[in-house]
Amino acid sequence: MELLLFNIFNGFIIGIFYALMALGLSMILGLNGIINFSHGGFLALGAYMAYSLAPAIGFWGALIVSPFLAGFVGLIVERVLIRPLYGRDPLFSLLLTFGLAMIMQDLIRTFWGATGLPFEVPNALTHPLSQVYFFITGYRVFLVALALLATASLFALLKFTRVGIRIRAGNADLEMVSALGINIYRLRAVNFSLGIFMAGLAGVLAAGRLGLTPTMGASLIMPSFVAIIVGGVGSLVGSLLGGIIIGVAAGITTTYYPAASDVVIYLIMAVVLIVRPRGLMGQEGLLE
Amino acid sequence: MKSAASRHVDAAKPADAMSSQKSTRRRVAASALVWALLLTAPYWLPLTGGYTDLGSRVLVFSLAALGLNLLLGFTGGLSFGHAAYFGLGAYGTGLMLKFVTHSTPLALLAGVALGGLGATLFGPVTVRRRGIYFAMITIAIGQMFYFVAVRWNSLTGGEDGLTGFERTNIHFGHAILNLHNSTIFYYFTLFFFAIGCAVVWSVLRSPLGHTFVAIRENQKRLRFLGVSVGFYLWIAFAISGFIAALAGALYALLNNFTSPEDLNWVLSGDFVIICVLGGMRTFWGPLVGSVIYVVVQDYLSSITVNWMSFIGAIFVLAVLFFPWGLLGFFQRRIQK
Fold first, then answer.
1. B306-326 pLDDT, tens per residue?
2. Residue A238, domain member (yes or no)
3. Please, which residues 116-175 of chain A have a Cβ atom closer than 8 Å to chain B?
4. Which of B308, B309, B316 sits opposite A96 (nearest CB)?
């Protein structure tokens, strides 16, 4: 029983990484119309920058600064590489971000080395909070709380601020938004950068939990795709839900049949696709 | 996305009969040249610093990309998971040789059947959606097979890959086809490459092939005409899966080894870039792309540890500056 709870909780944590990734991917997919294969690269970049910054500005400083830096890099990448892709066949954005992912992984390996690095979290966060449920450490609770806070802020931003409202309007009808005199290029840049910010944040959090390797993003991105498909393209809540569902499902499977823990998320996806082709919360007619 | 496709109208639609005759003649000449080069490759490859097995690898990757291109370039189905069927073909062949039989043709058949039926089985799940969604689903399904191969240690050898099998000679009565010889294996591969070309070529000339192209150009209209677009996409998916599986089976025989990397989405990306580099609206595009890609990869990985960055740069630059590929580029220049 404790083992099951342990695995469910672990799966939940992993699910949060999937969900944060899927959230950013989903935003970029929605307004920019691009599947960002390099999202995992940005996650790793956020993590490694935090690793390098932490000795200078401490864990808390790195936690705040690193996602912003990742978002800034995202802004530049959007301007230089992504912008020429708007309105073109989705094939090209897939290929370009695919190549970008390879370049980023290779550069990270060159700068920081191929071997895994540990990321120190403050001592205050490493103690178990419960004697019985030893796996509930402060860091994991903190991680959940911070992810919740970030997600809530993002939703509030989309719901209440001017730029958020424009982003949502752009998702519904970009042409109309453009016709109303809003600079959609700037809007898309902001949106892309926001998505990358979420990836960077997920990267820092994942670094404290899983450690750093150049391939850390690559291993998280595929389940994030599955999370989007399961949750339904076009729905941010769906992406969150999808991420948590597949994370927990993988955790439960680890308890009973560890060998299938990677495969089970794809089986869930297949079932969802057969029963509800648009995903759990997908909208009709999007991206077809 | 449709607008981008229709702007670049198929090159095989000449303006008048005169130029039609001319372009037919040009195409026959080009094909004759391609086959002449392929048939003599073992003789001129060493002169250029290549080696016969590299030639076989180019053929295997061209064959896989040729199969993918039927779906990608001609039907407009954005599959980013074709390594799955390639890898299934490879594993089917390897497992058959290791555990069941020492007959190379039987093993090849088993690999093609496994990969092709895999594509046929999972086709209906993917073809319900189009565009980006289609791409994501094909990737995810491909990754499923990857993880099965990694985790099913006892059967597949896990991450280390499947070893302990070897292609065997084929006996025709007293005559022996010595497949251990690199040159003979090259011709063995070329034979199946020719079969793949013949299949794709005859499909493209048939009403079925015209339906595929019509799906790419305007699937909404086809739907109004009462054509079941999903059904035809499925057929395209299955045919291209069978061809990719054949390529995978040959790859397993070439290396006497298969690894989960043969199933990975990175390889799927390689197949797509091969189609794009050569020109995905052209018949010989996959072959040209494969020559460029395989040779460059082989060369880069021998001179630098950062070859991944260079390969990534090829992806980025091809998309930004060369989206219609080498052959597409020439074709459009000739038409002007």
1. 888 998 999 899 999 888 888
2. no
3. none
4. B316
SS3 content of chain B, % helix, strand, coil (to 5): 80, 0, 20
- Mean pLDDT, all residues of chain A: 88
The residue in chain B having the minimum alpha-carbon distance to the alpha carbon of residue A219 is: B143
Contact A98 B269 (CB under 8 A): yes
Residue among A90, A95, A266 minimizing CB distance to B1: A90
Burial B124-155 (b: 16+ CB within 10 A, else e): ebbbbbbbbbbbbbbbbbbbbbbbbbbbeeee
> A43-74 pLDDT, tens per residue?
999 999 999 998 899 888 999 999 999 999 99
Q: What is the ipTM of this complex?
A: 0.86
Give CA–CA dist A92/A100, Å, rounded: 12
Tell me the count of A-B CB pairs closer than 8 A: 129
Q: Does the distance separating the beta carbons of B147 and A96 come in below 8 Å?
A: no
Residue A14 lies in a domain: no
Low-confidence ranges of chain B (pLDDT < 50): 1-15
Q: Does residue A233 lie within any of the structural domains?
A: no
Q: How many CB atoms lie within 10 A of CB B239?
A: 22
Q: A269: which chain B residues are within 8 Å (Cβ-Cβ)?
A: 137, 140
In a domain, A264, yes or no: no
Interface check for A285 against chain B (CB to CB < 8 A): the answer is: no
- Per the listing, tokens 């690793």 go with A51
- Structural domain that includes position A195: 19-214
Question: What are B310's two structure tokens?
Answer: 């260079």
Band (pLDDT 50/70/90 cuts) for residue A288 is very low
Checking if the pLDDT of A131 tops 80, the result is no
> Which residues on chain A are in Cβ contact (under 8 Å) with B309?
102-103, 106-107, 110
Total domains, chain A = 1
